[in-house]
Design goal:
CATH superfamily of chain A: Acetylglutamate kinase-like
CATH topology of chain A: Carbamate kinase
Oligomer: homodimer
Structural class of chain A: alpha/beta
Shape of chain A: globular
Strand content of chain A: 25-35%
Low-confidence stretches of chain A: none
């Protein structure tokens, strides 16, 4: 039987507020067994960029990463956010190691080609997202070697193209790719944390968590509009992971990284 | 016989200019065998801090790291500078891993207590350097495990105190401590690179490199004023390393990291 591992993804809002960060680190440190933390940091990037006089451009809720913004996200994600988490975990006896995808070549990607995006007015536009990476491969073997040494990888949402360029990469995607890359070696539980208790049946009712979503449910909920917006790519990442051998995917609130009471994603 | 390793320290100026960085990465990638790179980044930190409206305070040529400046150096050293080096080395088939001292607890330090500093006017003042770390221990064993896997550590000048705080730490000191921590396992050559060909007999003559400096020479050169200013702590770090088992210490120019023609530091 394979050893268990938890891959926990937390959004930017949680790690950018001292109180919620502290509570997250405490919870994460208390989780027994093998684990990996993947974090975001978008709000800090926007704030620091603004302080530097750099405007954040978003299209359809997604950041355009021009050369200047790439510098900002590199500083904020790999520096400020990641290293404070690492130091905070070390203080709690977790042997954390902060990683971008470039470090030990753990996540290789390619620059996203022009992509058709549906605008708010319903028209389609070809968008250049700039220095944004779509992941090609995650190096599960190297991550395994670290984990075997008791190291806890703390992954920041940056990858590289192997030609010297860092690329801004969605943290949910990184969590999903890492979970898949670990699946041949471990019994993997992937937990996506966000601000709600789970996927809600009714966006206005925080207690309307849908306990289980199968692929068939997902199709039905999309069609009925229960699941929409940013929840769609999150669930797509979740199903990708399930298809690639991840044992269990859970969507839950950041103050509940053990996942009880959240939404469990199942193939059937 | 122990396996050889090169610990190369390069200053901020080299890694902050695209042309010299490129040339450094090319040279470093071409070095055969085990290796570690330690880098600075002070100029970028000063520049980014200024863009953020944060003033850099220096006393006796050394930075005062207040809470805001700690955020800036964390972003610049661990993010911008370190990760661009890592991605650049990966593009040259070097399996680089960027590390602060907090990552895998490789460098533990304590916050520097108030320290007496001689001011330009000759008076002594007690100075609070702020979030600056004096290194207590380097984890040679963990670095060795990485190196055995073919990983090339790229170390940024930040350490941690084990209580969750990152601390700004002199890059020469980090290079020296890392070299010492590797000495029980490897035959270590520590190379400090800076803007001159070596330690000069005459500051105005770039070709007046002193080929060898023993401890006795160092005392004499300090007394005569040939060695002064920032060169003194650099040589103190060099002799510390020699005393703790580092086989060979060289001071040379950054475009010559193989060290030929530089100054060799010897105990006797």
């Amino acid at each position: 039987m394979k050893d268990k591992i938890n891959v926990i993804k937390v959004g930017g809002a949680v790690v950018e507020d001292a109180t919620s960060l502290n509570s997250l680190l405490q919870q994460f440190a208390g989780m027994p067994g093998n684990k990996v933390l993947v974090h975001g940091g978008g709000r800090s990037a926007t704030r620091i960029a603004a302080s530097l006089g750099i405007e954040s451009h978003m299209v359809g809720g997604r950041r355009i990463t021009d050369a200047q913004m790439l510098q900002v996200v590199t500083m904020v994600y790999a520096g400020l956010v990641n290293k404070n988490i690492v130091a905070g975990l070390q203080a709690r006896n977790v042997n954390a190691l902060g990683l971008t995808g470039a470090d030990m070549d753990v996540l290789r990607s390619h620059k996203r080609p022009l992509k058709a995006v549906t605008m708010d007015d319903g028209t389609e536009q070809l968008v250049d997202f700039g220095f944004v990476g779509d992941v090609d491969k995650a190096n599960g073997e190297m991550l395994c070697k670290l984990i075997a040494e008791g190291v806890v990888p703390v992954m920041t949402p940056l990858t590289h193209d192997g030609a010297g360029n860092l690329l801004n990469t969605n943290a949910d995607t990184i969590a999903s790719k890492v979970a898949c890359a670990l699946a041949p070696y471990f019994d993997v539980t992937l937990t996506f944390c966000f601000e709600k208790k789970g996927v809600l049946r009714n966006a206005d009712d925080d207690d309307s968590v849908i306990p289980v979503i199968t692929e068939q449910d997902f199709a039905a909920h999309r069609a009925s509009g229960v699941i929409s917006g940013g929840m769609i790519p999150k669930l797509e990442n979740a199903f990708d992971a399930i298809h690639q051998g991840v044992q269990r995917v859970v969507i839950t609130r950041s103050d509940n990284i053990n996942g009880e009471g959240g939404t469990v994603i199942k193939e059937f």
